From TrEMBL, chain A:
<keyword id="KW-0812">Transmembrane</keyword>
<keyword id="KW-0472">Membrane</keyword>
<protein>
    <submittedName>
        <fullName>Multiple sugar transport system permease protein</fullName>
    </submittedName>
</protein>
<keyword id="KW-0813">Transport</keyword>
<feature type="transmembrane region" description="Helical">
    <location>
        <begin position="25"/>
        <end position="48"/>
    </location>
</feature>
<comment type="similarity">
    <text>Belongs to the binding-protein-dependent transport system permease family.</text>
</comment>
<feature type="transmembrane region" description="Helical">
    <location>
        <begin position="225"/>
        <end position="245"/>
    </location>
</feature>
<keyword id="KW-0762">Sugar transport</keyword>
<feature type="transmembrane region" description="Helical">
    <location>
        <begin position="280"/>
        <end position="300"/>
    </location>
</feature>
From TrEMBL, chain B:
<keyword id="KW-0449">Lipoprotein</keyword>
<dbReference type="Pfam" id="PF01547">
    <property type="entry name" value="SBP_bac_1"/>
</dbReference>
<dbReference type="InterPro" id="IPR006059">
    <property type="entry name" value="SBP"/>
</dbReference>
<keyword id="KW-0564">Palmitate</keyword>
<protein>
    <submittedName>
        <fullName>Multiple sugar transport system substrate-binding protein</fullName>
    </submittedName>
</protein>
<comment type="similarity">
    <text>Belongs to the bacterial solute-binding protein 1 family.</text>
</comment>
<keyword id="KW-0813">Transport</keyword>
<keyword id="KW-0732">Signal</keyword>
<dbReference type="InterPro" id="IPR050490">
    <property type="entry name" value="Bact_solute-bd_prot1"/>
</dbReference>
Length: 309, 443
C-alpha cells in the first residue's frame, strides 16, 4: 500500500521522489509492523487454526493431535443448531435494536440541536453519561433491576398485581436490548450531534427565510446532511451487535436458564475455548467475522445507492 | 470517485471483520510469562533441584517457605496465579503447549482428568506409589487416571448438611437424616412460613456431589472405552427427587453464590445447604447475618442403614508435562499434603480439609466455631469423610460437560424444564463431543 507513489501523479522535475518514497516508507514502517503483528498475525493464526481438527484415540488420555481437515470445523459449525440459533438470535436483536437506538439517538441530537433547546450542555452530558459506565457494571446494575428477587420495578408494580418477567424466555432478549440501548444511545447521539453542528448556518438561515418549519428543516435538511454520520453509527452498531457478550454473560447467572451458555455466537465460541477445542472456536469466530463483513458491506451498498444520483 | 468508494467499502468490510475477529480472539489469553524449566544438572549431585509451583490457595506461599527451610535437595519457587476457573488452568495448558510450564500446578480433581486428556500432566507413579497408603482412598483415586498417578491430593470436600438450627427449632421441625425426611421438613417449613425454602438450586460440581453420594457415577472406564452415564437410572432417581421439590415450590430461586443467595442464607429464608466442608468458609464470609444460627449435621441419606457421602471440590498438586525433575516435584507435593505444621496453616488460611489420614486430628480441626454457635463442625466432617464413596471418575472434558449440564439445570430449577432432561442433554453432548474427537465411548 504505497500511497505516496500511486495516489499522486509524478510531478515533473521533482528530483527528490526517491527520497520522499523512502521517507514515507520509513514513517509508515512502525504502523505496518504493529498492524501486522497485532491485527494480521492473530487473524491469520485464527484462520489457520480453524483448518485443523482435534484428534484423540482410545481413552483420549494422551495429548490430542491436530489433523489438517480444512472444512471439518466449518461444516460442524453450520450443522450445530446451537451456534446457528445464536446467530439467528443476534440477527433478530440487531434488526430491532439498532434502528430503535439510532432513531432515539437522532431524535435526541435534533432536540438538543434545536434553536429553542435549553440547558443543552446538561442534556448532552446526562444522555452521554451511561456510556461512561463500563458495560459489565451496567449489566450488573440492570441485573438487580430485572432480578425476580430484587427488582424495584416489580416491587412497585406488585400492588397492582402486575409482574413483568424481565428474564422470562420470551422477554430476556429485549431486556438485553434495553441495556445496550441505554448504554449506547448517548454515544451515537454525540456523533450525530457533532455532525449537526457542522451544518453551515446559511443553509438553515435560508430555509428559515423561505418559511420552512422546524420539522421541515429537521426532516429535509438536517437529517439528509447528517446521513453519513448516521450510516457510520449504524455500521458500528452492527459490529457491536455481533460482539454481544457482556450483558447476556452477566445476566446469565440470574436468568434462570433463559440465557444459556451459547446465547450469542461469541459465547458459543467461548464454550469451545473452555473445552480446549481452539480450532472449533476459531472457525466460529471466522464465520462470525465474515458474516459481519458481508453485512456491513451490504449495508453500505444499500445506503449509498440513493446518494449516487 | 468510484474507486475511492470501492476502497472505502472494502476498508469498512475489513474493519468490521477485524473488529469482530480480534474481539473473539481476545479471550484466549496471552501466553504465560515464560519461566524456563530449570534443568537439573545430574553431574553435580550437590546442587539442589530447582522447580516452580503455580497455585492460588492462600497459605501456599508459607508452605513453600517451610519446605525450602526443611531440606536442601530441592528449592521450590512459588508463583501465585489466577484461580483455575478464572484463567489459571488456561495459563497452565497454554504454557504446557509452549513448553515453558512450571513443574507443579494446583489442579482441582474435577479438572485433573481433563488435564490428563490434554496430555498436560507428567506420570509420577514410580515415585508416588510408596506414599499411597497415607492418603484417603477416594482422593488418591482422584489423582489416578488410567492407572497413572499425576500428582498428590491436597484437600477433599466431604459433604454435610448446613442448616439454620434456629429456624428448625422455632418451627419445631426435626433435623432430617434421610432424603424422605428432608422432603417432609421442606413441606413443614413451607406450611409454617411460605417464604422459607428448604434449599436453593445446585449446579455443576455442587450437583455432582448429590450424584456422587447416591452412587450414580457420571463416567467410568471399561477396558479402553469410556462409559458415560450422566442420564443413568441412578442419576434419574436423584434428578426426580429434586424435581419433586421444585414442583412443590420448596426450592429457592436464588442461584448459589449470587447476592440473593447470601441474603437468603443470612435472613433465614433458605433453611439448608447441602455442601462441602469448604462451604463453611463461604457461609461465614458472605452470610454474616446468620452467625450463631447455623449448625452442621450429616448429609441426608437415601438408605439410613448404609450411609454414604458425596464430595465436592478438593484439589491436587499436579506435576505438569515437561517437568524435568519429577522426583523432586513429587517430594514437594507430598510434603505440602502431609506436613502437619504446614497444613495447620493451610486450614486456618484456606479452610482446606486434609486428604491425608494422619492429619485429620490436627488441633486446627478440633476448634469450636463461633459462627456455628460454638459447634466443633470438623467433628462432623471427620465422621463423614470416612463414608465418601470411593469410586467416582471425572470425564475427559469436564468444562464442556458442566456447561451443557448447567444450561439444562438452570432452566429446570427455574421451572422451565425438567432436571431429567438436563441430564439427557448433557449426556448426549458429552458423548457427541468425545466421539467427534475420536475417543472410544462404549454404548
Amino acid at each position: 500500500m504505497s500511497v505516496a507513489s500511486t495516489a499522486r501523479p509524478r510531478k515533473p522535475g521533482a528530483k527528490t521522489n526517491g527520497r520522499q518514497g523512502r521517507t514515507a516508507a520509513l514513517l509508515l514502517a512502525p504502523f505496518v509492523v504493529i498492524f501486522a503483528a497485532m491485527y494480521l498475525a492473530p487473524l491469520g493464526f485464527a484462520v489457520y487454526r480453524s483448518l485443523f481438527v482435534l484428534k484423540r484415540d482410545g481413552l483420549g488420555l494422551t495429548a490430542p493431535t491436530l489433523a489438517f481437515d480444512p472444512m471439518a470445523n466449518y461444516l460442524k459449525a453450520f450443522a450445530d443448531p446451537v451456534f446457528i440459533e445464536s446467530l439467528g438470535r443476534v440477527l433478530l436483536f440487531g434488526v430491532v435494536q439498532v434502528p430503535v437506538m439510532l432513531g432515539l439517538s437522532t431524535g435526541l441530537a435534533l432536540l438538543i440541536d434545536s434553536r429553542s433547546a435549553r440547558a443543552k450542555g446538561f442534556f448532552r452530558l446526562t444522555s452521554f453519561l451511561p456510556y461512561a459506565v463500563p458495560g459489565v457494571i451496567a449489566a450488573l446494575m440492570w441485573s438487580f433491576l430485572y432480578s425476580g428477587t430484587s427488582s424495584p420495578i416489580n416491587a412497585l408494580l406488585e400492588p397492582l398485581g402486575i409482574e413483568i418477567p424481565f428474564l422470562g424466555e420470551d422477554m430476556v432478549l429485549w431486556s438485553v436490548a434495553n441495556i445496550v440501548t441505554w448504554g449506547w444511545t448517548g454515544y451515537n447521539m454525540i456523533i450525530i450531534y457533532a455532525a449537526l453542528q457542522s451544518i453551515p448556518g446559511e443553509i438553515l438561515e435560508a430555509a428559515k427565510i423561505d418559511g420552512a418549519s422546524a420539522w421541515r428543516i429537521a426532516w429535509n435538511i438536517k437529517i439528509p446532511m447528517v446521513r453519513p454520520a448516521i450510516i457510520l453509527t449504524a455500521v458500528f452498531s452492527i459490529i457491536g451487535t455481533a460482539q454481544l457478550y457482556n450483558e447476556p454473560k452477566v445476566l446469565q447467572s440470574v436468568s434462570g436458564g433463559s440465557i444459556d451458555s451459547a446465547f450469542t455466537p461469541i459465547m458459543a465460541a467461548q464454550v469451545a475455548t473452555a473445552a480446549q477445542n481452539y480450532p472449533y472456536a476459531a472457525a466460529m469466530s471466522v464465520i462470525l467475522a465474515v458474516l459481519v463483513g458481508i453485512l456491513s458491506i451490504t449495508f453500505f451498498k444499500l445506503t449509498n445507492r440513493g446518494s449516487d444520483a | 470517485m468510484k474507486s475511492f468508494k470501492r476502497w472505502g467499502l472494502a476498508a469498512a468490510g475489513t474493519l468490521a471483520a477485524t473488529l469482530a475477529l480480534t474481539a473473539c480472539g481476545g479471550s484466549s489469553g496471552a501466553p504465560a510469562a515464560s519461566t524456563p524449566a530449570p534443568a537439573a544438572s545430574s553431574s553435580e549431585a550437590a546442587k539442589p533441584a530447582e522447580l516452580t509451583f503455580w497455585g492460588w490457595a492462600p497459605g501456599y506461599a508459607d508452605s513453600v517457605k517451610a519446605f525450602n527451610a526443611s531440606q536442601s535437595d530441592v528449592v521450590v519457587k512459588y508463583e501465585e496465579i489466577q484461580p483455575g476457573s478464572r484463567g489459571g488452568y488456561e495459563k497452565m495448558l497454554n504454557a504446557v503447549q509452549a513448553g515453558n510450564a512450571a513443574c507443579l500446578g494446583q489442579v482441582g480433581y474435577e479438572t485433573l482428568t481433563s488435564f490428563a486428556a490434554q496430555g498436560a500432566l507428567e506420570d509420577v507413579t514410580q515415585y508416588a506409589t510408596a506414599n499411597q497408603g497415607e492418603y484417603v482412598e477416594f482422593a488418591w483415586n482422584s489423582v489416578t487416571v488410567g492407572g497413572k498417578v499425576f500428582g498428590a491430593p491436597v484437600d477433599t470436600g466431604p459433604m454435610a448438611m448446613y442448616y439454620n438450627k434456629a429456624l428448625f427449632e422455632k418451627h419445631k421441625i426435626a433435623v432430617p437424616t434421610t432424603w424422605d425426611e428432608y422432603k417432609v421438613a421442606a413441606e413443614k417449613l413451607k406450611a409454617a412460613d411460605p417464604k422459607v425454602k428448604i434449599s436453593s438450586p445446585y449446579a455443576n460440581y455442587d450437583y455432582a456431589g448429590m450424584s456422587w453420594q447416591a452412587g450414580a457415577p457420571w463416567f467410568g472406564i471399561e477396558g479402553d472405552s469410556w462409559k458415560v452415564s450422566i442420564d443413568s437410572a441412578e442419576n434419574n432417581k436423584v434428578a426426580e427427587y429434586w424435581q419433586s421439590l421444585v414442583d412443590a415450590g420448596t426450592i429457592a430461586k436464588a442461584p448459589m453464590y449470587d447476592p440473593a443467595w447470601f441474603k437468603g442464607l443470612g435472613d433465614g429464608s433458605i433453611a439448608t445447604l447441602v455442601g462441602a466442608v469448604w462451604q463453611a468458609g463461604v457461609i461465614k464470609g458472605d452470610a454474616a447475618d446468620g452467625a450463631g444460627k447455623w449448625a452442621v449435621a450429616p448429609m441426608p441419606q437415601w438408605d439410613a442403614a448404609s450411609p454414604k457421602v458425596g464430595n465436592v471440590g478438593g484439589s491436587a498438586t499436579a506435576v505438569l508435562k515437561g517437568c524435568e525433575t519429577p522426583e523432586a516435584a513429587w517430594k514437594f507435593a507430598n510434603f505440602l499434603s502431609t506436613d502437619a505444621d504446614s497444613y495447620g496453616n493451610l486450614i486456618e488460611k484456606a479452610a482446606l480439609y486434609p486428604a491425608v489420614k494422619a492429619l485429620l486430628d490436627l488441633p486446627q480441626l478440633t476448634k469450636a466455631d463461633e459462627y456455628f454457635a460454638g459447634q466443633k463442625i470438623f467433628d462432623v466432617f471427620k465422621e463423614e469423610a470416612l463414608k465418601v464413596n470411593t469410586d467416582w471418575t471425572w470425564g475427559p472434558n469436564m468444562p464442556l460437560t458442566t456447561t451443557k449440564l448447567d444450561d439444562g439445570l438452570n432452566k429446570a430449577w427455574a421451572g422451565n424444564g425438567k432436571l431429567a432432561e438436563a441430564l439427557v442433554e448433557a449426556n448426549t453432548a458429552t458423548v457427541e463431543n468425545m466421539k467427534s474427537q475420536g475417543i472410544n465411548v462404549a454404548d
